[in-house]
Amino acid sequence: GCSGFLGGSDAIVPGTAPGFQPFEFREGGELVGFDIDLTEAVFAETDYELAEWETFEFDSLIQALTNDRIDFIAAAMTINDDRDETIDFSDPYYSANQSVVVRDDGSFSPSELGDLSGHPIGAQSGTTGEGVIQTELIETGELEESNYNSYDNYVLAVEDLQNGNIDAVVIDEPVGETFASQRPVEVAFVYETGEQYGFGMRTEDDDLTTAVNEGLAAVRQGGTYGELTSEWFGN
Ligand code: GLN
User: Fold this and answer.
1) What pLDDT was estimated at residue 8?
2) Distance, CA 204 to ligand 1 centroid (Å)?
3) Most C-beta atoms within 10 A of its C-beta, which of 41, 86, 114, 171?
């Protein structure tokens, strides 16, 4: 990949941002997750080869793509107008809402966004969770900007939640539920955003986008998509 023209013989370099279980995370040093398996299944349906994965912080992925350091983003990335101005997305492959995660000791039990007012909270830089905090809490005057803490990675945000430096984390619900199953934190409530994840590609790589959409359709029809959702989400 990354040589400009993406012909059939040129391997595509996929990029992701680990620390977002069950979509992409490290297990014994190995990069695993739903996005990793789904990407591999989709590419197996195309004529494109897949190169080794490159990893970045989530908020560097779009720049890595437009700078040709990677050719493809698989990072539970929500399709939205802002990003659509810079890159192209595949057809949607997963739906999610935001969740508000708190410590599970009962010290703070918010039931709606407004309850976060006056509390230090966090999210990962460049995410739609951060966007909810900006538009629904900071811009409305319900939360002081100084109460918002931006992290390079959600793992760091949840660690700060556990040690009491912040009182809540706004994060995609499937990932919030996974943290809740592994750490002393819980999902206090869900904030419905109706987000849809898509794979990201450069706008000029139309042939790749077409092939990926065809591959995704084939993976859904052939049953592999269902197998991967039961494997990674148990449903
Ligand atoms: N879906 C969210 C977004 O696109 C979070 C993605 C992530 O943190 N990997 O902003």
Assistant:
1) 47
2) 23
3) 171
